[in-house]
């Protein structure tokens, strides 16, 4: 998931928004920002509705606790803990 926007909610954490590019995302999953340390997904919302799970193609907001707003920016990539983020400027030939 590529981060479209990020904002802090006082006493809750940091919310990032974007579209799930591939796979499934669930509350409790561990994700990495640009391949960094793992973060736990604390909540997921889709169109102001709480969800336990979202799949590829869905626009979502994901809540993280324990990080600061300055730690994540537009364009950052969230990946599952086992994936490596794409390298910018490279072309994939299939």
Q: What would the keywords be for this entry?
A:
single chain; 94 residues; mainly beta; Elongation Factor Tu (Ef-tu), domain 3; five-stranded antiparallel β-sheet; three-stranded antiparallel β-sheet; 47% strand; globular
Describe the structure.
The protein is built from no helices and 10 strands. It has 94 residues and is mainly β. The chain has a single domain (2-80), classed as Translation factors (Elongation Factor Tu (Ef-tu), domain 3, Beta Barrel), CATH 2.40.30. The strands form 3 sheets. Strands 1-2-9-6-7 form a 5-stranded antiparallel β-sheet, with no helix packed on it. Strand 4 (30-33) and strand 5 (38-40) form a beta hairpin. It is globular. Mean pLDDT is 87; it is low at 89-94.
Task: Summarize this entry quickly.
With 94 residues, the chain is mainly β. The chain contains no helices and ten strands.
CATH topology name, in short, is: Elongation Factor Tu (Ef-tu), domain 3
CATH architecture classification name: Beta Barrel
Strand order of the largest sheet: 1-2-9-6-7
Q: Beta-strand level of the residues, as a percent range?
A: over 45%
Major β-sheet, in short?
Answer: 5 strands, antiparallel
Integer count of domains: 1
Low-pLDDT parts are 89-94
Order of helices and strands: EEEEEEEEEE
* CATH class identity: Mainly Beta
User: In total, how many beta strands?
Assistant: 10
Overall, the morphology is globular
Q: What is the CA-CA span between the terminal residues?
A: 21 Å
């Amino acid at each position: 998931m590529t981060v479209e926007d990020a904002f802090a909610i006082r006493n809750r954490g940091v919310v990032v928004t974007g579209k799930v590019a591939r796979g499934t995302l669930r509350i409790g999953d561990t994700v990495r920002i640009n391949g960094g340390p793992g973060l736990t997904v604390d909540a997921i919302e889709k169109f102001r509705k709480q969800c336990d799970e979202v799949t590829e193609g869905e626009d979502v907001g994901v809540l993280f606790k324990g990080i600061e707003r300055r730690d994540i920016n537009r364009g950052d990539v969230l990946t599952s803990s086992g994936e490596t983020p794409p390298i910018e400027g490279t072309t994939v030939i299939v």
